[in-house]
Amino acid sequence: MCGHWNDYLCTIEDHVALILVNLALADVAPMEGLRRLVTVRIPMRTRTADGLTSDAEAETLDALESALTESLAPHVHLTDPDSPDADAPEIHAILVGRVICNGMRDLYFYATDGRDWDERIAQLLEPFPGYELDIILADDPGWEAYLSFLFPSPRDLQGIFNREQCEQLEELGDPLTQARPIEHWISLPSERARDSAITEVTRLGYEVRGVTVEESEDEEFDCVARGEESGQDAHRDADAAGGVHTFFRVHLAHIDVPRIDRIEAITAPLFDLAERLGGEYDGWQTSVESGAAEGGPTEAREGS
Fold first, then answer.
1. How many structural domains compose the chain?
2. pLDDT tens digits for 31-55?
3. Does residue 169 form part of some domain?
4. Strand locations in 102-223, DSSP E?
5. Nearest CA among 304, 287, 295 for reference residue 253
6. Cβ(78)–Cβ(1) below 8 Å
7. pTM metric for this prediction
8. In which domain, by residue range, is 39 found?
9. CATH for 251
């Protein structure tokens, strides 16, 4: 599968769910022409106690999903939206995610149509006797299912980036056993929020390495507006009315070990603090402490 795929655990109607999603599609969603949401539902024969895939069935289900994807949405390669390739093949369907929950594996596609998928899927099922799939069609031109259901929340997205960052360190030869400085950044909408954050992180034992005043034209990062809505005395420069927002970025550091089983506990208090003050936690970076690339920084920035 092409793109930036990753998964995360959550709950759906009180059931444990594992959602796999192509994060890269957030930059291009919704894609023109792919207005039809096609959900292919695979009832699992066996399941774990929490309703997820059992080891006994995983290999068969993976093979079935691969066959479905290769036939229904084959070899989709996204072009740079800023540099369209006139020779790029037209995309008729694309897989955007999968949900495993309560004994079901649901594959989510966006397609130009999908009304003939029953016949196509029936042919694909011949090597997989005993499986009966359901196909659910819906009009979704704005890709709400992808953007509002499959795509992770900011907290879940930070958890994905945390895991990817630790895995990258391990790939570079870092055993993740040695304590080292870990740097963090928080963006805040006002002087009051900045001062409150500095007081709180100092109490938690962080070193404040610096504060910068920055501007953003990104509509997704309207930290100022959210600060005003929550009662903060938001700092706004003369250009803010035209869409340029001024905010404060606080640079922090502390000594710790960035292990996969610990990194959530490291980042969660900072994430919660930034959210409470109407800002955003911008992620972390640290150095590689072992292997050929020792000493080089790696980073996991929220939203990047």
1. 2
2. 999 999 999 999 999 999 999 999 9
3. no
4. 104-111, 134-139, 180-188, 207-216
5. 287
6. no
7. 0.81
8. 5-150
9. 3.30.70.970
